[in-house]
């Protein structure tokens, strides 16, 4: 494995580390996330409107929602086809991104985080441009799939996340890493809130074209910031080959290379917990818009925007809750409380038939996102300093698998359960979250002071 260049433990190294800390990756994550959170619900609503319009179904319009007396068979046909197209688009993009992000993450250990971030944001900008062309020229919706594939080849949003979290790990102290990761995730939440409110109101006022122009403009700004505004967190970048199996072997070595048994065991168990938690997050998010568009809620684009903002407000409330709970609890128990918040919120949403109950479910998710920064931080502490890039590439790979699994399960399950319980996917998600809650609790109870701590500190 290629050794990562990192600051030395000398006073000069400490000074260099402080200088690196001033180079923020947070604005880049904010811009890329803002564009994505604007685009995702807009694309789903565009598919809903476009497929319904092509079939002459009059129960939906550009503002979303449903109309009284619209035929049930037509509505279910549009819902089903929209869900299937969402499945195809997400499946194709993340199958490609699964391999590209795993390749690009270890590569960034040598060449630096900037090339990865530039490439990934450029791919997202290209996807936004193709989406704008589809909306403006009324091209076939299959071009949305093409844009997703091109973005996946460049690393996709997972590449942005991998580069951003690796940059934070490059410059953060071990005891502050959980909170630093949570701050970075809070940036994603603020972007989600703004994207939900702005996109929903703008769509209702002016249709699809202008909001998609905003998506493209924000993505281009993210590319420019990645290229010229982000200060490199790898201290001494050096050239390295991109297309080599060595990068994949670096990721594989995390789980297979000889090392203290408890280190590898915890790595595998926390990775499984991360996979299940993020799968439920992605899966629920995928069907929230469809659930809100259809009867009995029949939300318009403005309410969908408020719903998206309420959902992403959990990033900020989880950050505050994490900081407060860390004063009296170990990180594992903070994660347990977070999972309890998630489970209760999903159960309420699964039975929501009115707008107040739906927003009450969103409110109960107020600590739901404190779990993922805890798991990311614990995983980061389980590997040596020279393995951080490979680790976050591995997590990007896991997140790709999460979206692939979530899209396949939730987008297929939603239309299949419309006839007996529309909220069944959310109920299933709540049940799945009991597994990571059990894993994290078991690790905290049976091994509160794991033996691998000394290995990590001295590696």
Question: What do you see in this structure?
Answer:
The protein is an all-alpha fold and 459 residues long. The chain folds into two domains: 23-54 and 73-232, Growth Hormone, Chain: A, CATH 1.20.1250.20; 244-448, Up-down Bundle (Growth Hormone, Chain: A). 77% of the residues lie in helices and 0% in strands. It has 18 helices and no strands. Helix 3 (72-111) packs antiparallel against helix 4, helix 3 packs across helix 6 (156-171) and helix 12 (331-350) runs antiparallel to helix 17. The two termini are 15 Å apart. Mean pLDDT is 82; it is low at 1-22 and 450-459.
Pick out its properties:
single chain; 2 domains; 459 residues; mainly alpha; Growth Hormone, Chain: A; folic acid:proton symporter activity; cell membrane; cytoplasm; disordered C terminus; disordered N terminus
Quote the average pLDDT.
Answer: 82
CATH superfamily of the largest domain: MFS general substrate transporter like domains
Query: Which fold name is given in CATH as the topology of the largest domain?
Result: Growth Hormone, Chain: A
Instruction: Count helical runs.
Output: 18
- Largest sheet data: none
What structural category characterises the helix and strand content? Answer: mainly alpha
CATH architecture of the largest domain: Up-down Bundle
Helical content band: over 70%
Tell me the radius of gyration. Answer: 22 Å
Along the chain, the helix and strand elements come as HHHHHHHHHHHHHHHHHH
Q: How far do the termini sit from each other?
A: 15 Å
Query: What overall form do the CA principal axes indicate?
Result: globular
Low-confidence stretches: 1-22, 450-459
Strand content: under 5%
CATH class group of the largest domain: Mainly Alpha
Number of strands: 0
Q: In total, how many domains does the architecture comprise?
A: 2
Main location: membrane
InterPro entries: MFS, MFS_trans_sf
Keywords: Cell membrane, Cytoplasm, Disulfide bond, Endosome, Folate-binding, Glycoprotein, Membrane, Symport, Transmembrane, Transmembrane helix, Transport
Pfam family, one: MFS_1
């Amino acid at each position: 494995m290629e050794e990562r260049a990192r600051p030395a433990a000398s006073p000069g190294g400490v000074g260099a580390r402080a200088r690196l800390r001033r180079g923020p990756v947070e604005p880049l994550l904010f811009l890329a996330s803002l564009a994505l959170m604007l685009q995702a619900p807009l694309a789903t609503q565009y598919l809903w409107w476009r497929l319904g319009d092509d079939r002459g179904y009059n129960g939906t319009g550009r503002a979303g929602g449903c109309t009284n007396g619209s035929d049930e068979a037509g509505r279910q046909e549009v819902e089903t086809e929209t869900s299937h197209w969402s499945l195809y688009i997400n499946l194709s993009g993340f199958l490609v991104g699964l391999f590209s992000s795993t390749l690009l993450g270890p590569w960034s250990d040598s060449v630096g985080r900037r090339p990865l971030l530039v490439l990934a944001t450029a791919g997202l900008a290209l996807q936004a441009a193709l989406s704008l062309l589809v909306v403006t020229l009324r091209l076939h919706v299959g071009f949305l799939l093409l844009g997703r594939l091109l973005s996946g080849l460049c690393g996709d949003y997972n590449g942005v996340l991998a580069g951003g979290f690796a940059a934070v790990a490059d410059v953060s102290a071990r005891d502050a890493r959980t909170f630093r990761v949570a701050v970075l995730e809070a940036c994603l939440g603020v972007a989600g809130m703004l994207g939900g409110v702005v996109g929903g109101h703008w769509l209702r006022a002016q249709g699809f074209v202008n909001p998609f122009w905003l998506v493209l403009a924000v993505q281009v700004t993210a590319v420019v910031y990645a290229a010229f505004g982000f200060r490199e967190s790898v201290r001494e970048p050096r050239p390295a080959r991109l297309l080599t199996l060595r990068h994949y072997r670096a990721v594989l070595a995390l789980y297979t290379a000889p090392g203290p048994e408890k280190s590898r065991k915890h790595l595998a168990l926390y990775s499984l917990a991360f996979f299940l938690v993020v799968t439920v997050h992605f899966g629920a998010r995928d069907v929230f818009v469809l659930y809100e568009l259809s009867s009995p809620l029949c939300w318009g684009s403005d309410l969908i925007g408020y719903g998206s903002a309420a959902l992403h407000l959990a990033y900020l409330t989880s950050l505050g809750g994490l900081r407060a709970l860390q004063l009296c609890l170990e990180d594992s128990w903070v994660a347990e409380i977070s999972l309890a918040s998630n489970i209760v919120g999903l159960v309420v949403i699964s039975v929501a038939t009115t707008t107040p109950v739906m927003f009450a479910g969103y409110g109960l998710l107020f600590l739901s996102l404190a779990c993922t920064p805890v798991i990311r931080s614990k995983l980061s502490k389980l590997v040596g300093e020279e393995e951080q890039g490979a680790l976050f590439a591995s997590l990007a790979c896991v997140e790709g698998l999460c979206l692939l699994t979530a899209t396949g399960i939730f987008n297929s399950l939603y239309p299949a359960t419309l006839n007996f319980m529309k909220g069944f996917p959310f109920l299933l998600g709540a049940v799945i979250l009991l597994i990571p809650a059990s894993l994290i609790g078991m690790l905290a109870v049976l091994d509160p002071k794991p033996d691998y701590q000394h290995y990590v500190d001295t590696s």
